[in-house]
Design a protein that fits this description.
- By secondary structure, the protein is α+β, with helices and mostly antiparallel strands.
- It has helices at residues 3-19, 34-41, 43-55, 66-90, 97-114, 120-158, 267-272; strands at residues 161-163, 174-176, 178-183, 193-198, 203-208, 220-227, 231-239, 250-256, 259-266, 284-292, 298-308.
- The chain folds into two domains: 3-157, no CATH class; 161-308, Sandwich (Jelly Rolls).
- The protein is built from seven helices and eleven strands.
- The chain starts with a helix and ends with a strand.
- The relative contact order is 0.11.
């Protein structure tokens, strides 16, 4: 490759060399914030943008018709991106069609950037591909990242309130074995409530996964649960070091009566709960409750989930 081609390609190959190892090393784990997970995924389009820009810096590829360039970029993303996903599966990492889609979007953007000049028709086609790629990326991937960042900021500001259900964003902090909707609480008090429709299963419940994880200095976890009939509810709390054993987390069974039930869990009991160790109260990973083998669908409402400094 001539010196000019090497000079043009060098920054892009450097970008590829930096990003490529991150496909197999590092990255978010199960307990990482949503924003970190979503931001990490955006490395895929950046990697393939750089790869297409580097490849098209080869002199013999400069100035090729845009449709050929577009086809080359698409083939590179599909073939190499698909191989990467297969290799990640063998490496013990998650395979994802979403990552392959991001690879293709990045390659298209790289083709648009690399294809300079040309007729008005070629310029129009490049603009359509470029704007279409950006809009797809913004709609499917950048918007969820922005939403996650806003909600994480709100969660830090409202802490030690973990969920007051004032906005739809808070619902995304939760997972459930059924449909979740935001509703006003039946008693008309301030804030809202999360209505959870649980389907029959061996274990059917709800869990909070995204929240400030440092619970040190607080006395109890408090929440309100509404039911229309008597229910036996099992609750669990674990930290990021949980080894999936029942004895390695906090467990408690509660009996709910019709109406609003005030549930309070002493965090001293949570800290002492794991067998053979102390719960890491600075890195709480998940709080959840479930019903064992419900005979029919169950509807619950959860409101005002918060940490309190004393039991008063």
């Amino acid at each position: 490759m001539p010196t000019e081609g090497l000079r043009r390609a060098a920054p892009w190959w450097l970008l590829v060399a930096i990003l490529a190892p991150l496909l197999f090393l590092g990255g978010p784990d199960f307990h990482s914030p949503r924003s970190f997970r979503l931001a990490w995924q955006l490395g895929h389009p950046l990697l393939f943008f750089g790869m297409v820009a580097a490849v098209t810096a080869i002199p013999r590829l400069r100035g090729i018709p845009f449709l050929r360039l577009f086809a080359l970029a698409t083939a590179l993303a599909l073939v190499l991106g698909g191989a990467i996903e297969l290799a990640q599966g063998l490496w013990g990492r998650e395979r994802s069609l979403s990552d392959l889609r991001l690879d293709v979007i990045g390659a298209w953007a790289g083709a648009v950037w690399a294809g300079r000049g040309g007729s008005r028709t070629r310029q129009t086609l490049r603009a359509a591909v470029g704007w279409g790629s950006l809009l797809l990326l913004a709609a499917v991937d950048v918007r969820p990242l922005a939403v996650a960042l806003v909600d994480e900021h709100q969660a830090r500001r409202s802490f030690p309130l973990l969920s007051g259900f004032h906005t739809d964003l808070e619902v995304q902090r939760w997972r459930a074995d059924g449909r979740m909707t935001l509703v006003p609480p039946p008693d008309g008090e301030g804030g809202g409530a999360l209505r959870v429709s649980l389907a029959p299963a061996v274990y059917s419940g709800f869990r909070m996964q995204y929240f400030p994880r440092d619970w040190r200095g607080y006395h109890a976890l408090r929440l309100r649960v509404f039911t229309e009939e008597n229910q036996k509810l099992a609750c669990r709390i674990h930290d990021v070091w949980h080894d999936q054993r029942h004895a390695d987390r906090f467990n408690r069974s509660l009996v709910l009566v019709p109406g609003w039930n005030l549930v309070e869990i002493a965090l001293a009991e949570v800290e002492a709960a794991p067998a053979g160790r102390t719960m890491d109260m600075s890195r709480i990973a998940e709080f959840g409750c479930f019903i064992v083998r419900p005979a029919r669908p169950v509807v619950l409402q959860i409101a005002a989930v918060e940490l309190v400094r004393n039991s008063a």
